[in-house]
Specification:
Layout: E1 2-4, H1 7-15, H2 22-29, E2 34-38, H3 39-50, H4 60-69, E3 72-75, H5 99-110, E4 112-114, E5 141-148, E6 167-169, E7 173-177, H6 180-188, H7 208-217, E8 223-231, E9 234-243, E10 246-249, H8 258-265, H9 276-279
Parallel strand pairs: 1-2, 1-4, 2-3
Antiparallel strand pairs: 5-7, 5-8, 6-7, 8-9, 9-10
Helix pairs in contact: 3-5
């Protein structure tokens, strides 16, 4: 069987095999299996090393050398999956999709199993489970979204399009996930330029034009934008809050509390022992793109 390794498995199989689940370790050590790694996963690792989000015991080149000796095969990234956004501030924008999306492409096209984003890995052909669902807790967490009361989006703002989704959350809040498809639609519609400036240096993904639009939208009611990017429990988060057309909480990175502070401003009341983040269910999915799976597209 073919197995597509996620970034954690790739690192742990090299030097920390005790951290692998028994099923994952047995699969990786079975020499009859083929182990695959997307080069996009290496990009993700190198970007996070450069940003100081993770520290590797050995240089990535050494780890790659060791994994080649372990029999791992590295899959190339195809040109069709890459866009040219060279002058943008964030390395991640060089990719049309996130690294985990490349992995899903390879999984389907090569009949490989992979540590799944919604639980255990599943073979694309026979649907046989590979690893236990607790792998989900070891993967990354990424969120880029707008939060507000439902009334703020009625009537629909001018930048609304067929790719926009609203997800209902507890305490009369809706979440608008800023997916890659939505960013691409804004680009195609001329709302956000390809190499647009980021709204604030503390943020990594919010284009200036969209940030200004959210600020204008806040004249209807409070609007919150949140970013979170964690890998193996290490990472950061950021939030900005607008009300009445002005920023009332300017973007500032904090050690894990920016989103809770923004939610408190939005009126969320935490239900102990849960904090505001868990009270409204922001941990329901681990990647921004997953949120669109729970809502149907609107007719625009």
């Amino acid at each position: 069987m073919k197995g597509l390794l996620d970034t954690h498995t790739f690192l742990w199989f090299d030097a920390e095999r005790a951290r692998l689940s028994p099923a994952a370790r047995a699969f990786c050590e079975d020499t009859s299996n083929t182990l695959l790694v997307s080069v996009a996963s290496l990009w993700e690792l190198q970007i996070k090393v450069n940003n100081g989000k993770i520290t590797l015991r050995d240089p990535l080149a050494v780890i790659v050398r060791d994994q080649l000796q372990n029999g791992v095969t590295f899959l190339p990234v195809e040109a069709a999956h890459v866009s040219c956004r060279c002058s943008t501030k964030t390395p991640r924008a060089h990719l049309r999709e996130r690294p985990n999306h490349y992995c899903n492409r390879y999984r389907g096209r090569r009949d490989a199993v992979v540590g799944g984003r919604r639980g255990g890995g599943v073979c694309a052909r026979c649907e046989r489970a590979l690893v236990s669902a607790d792998w989900r807790r070891t993967m990354s967490y990424v969120l880029e979204a707008v939060l507000a009361s439902p009334d703020v989006f009625s009537p629909r703002p001018a930048w609304w399009n067929a790719e926009t989704r609203l997800v209902s959350l507890p305490q009369n809040i809706v979440l608008l996930p800023l997916t890659e498809v939505l960013y691409d639609r804004w680009l195609a519609d001329g709302i956000s330029a390809d190499n647009a400036s980021i709204y604030a240096p503390e943020l990594t993904r919010l284009p200036l034009a969209i940030g200004d639009a959210l600020c204008e939208l806040s004249k209807r009611g409070m609007v919150v934008y949140v970013e979170a990017d964690y890998f193996g429990g290490v990472g950061d988060q950021c939030a900005v809050v607008w009300q009445g057309g002005v920023s009332v909480m300017f973007p500032a990175r904090r050690t894990g509390n920016a989103i809770n502070e923004a939610l408190a401003r939005l009126g969320v009341r935490a239900a102990p022992p849960l904090d505001s983040f868990d009270t409204v269910g922001l941990g329901r999915f681990r990647h921004t793109e997953d949120w669109v799976s729970v809502v149907e597209p609107e007719t625009v």
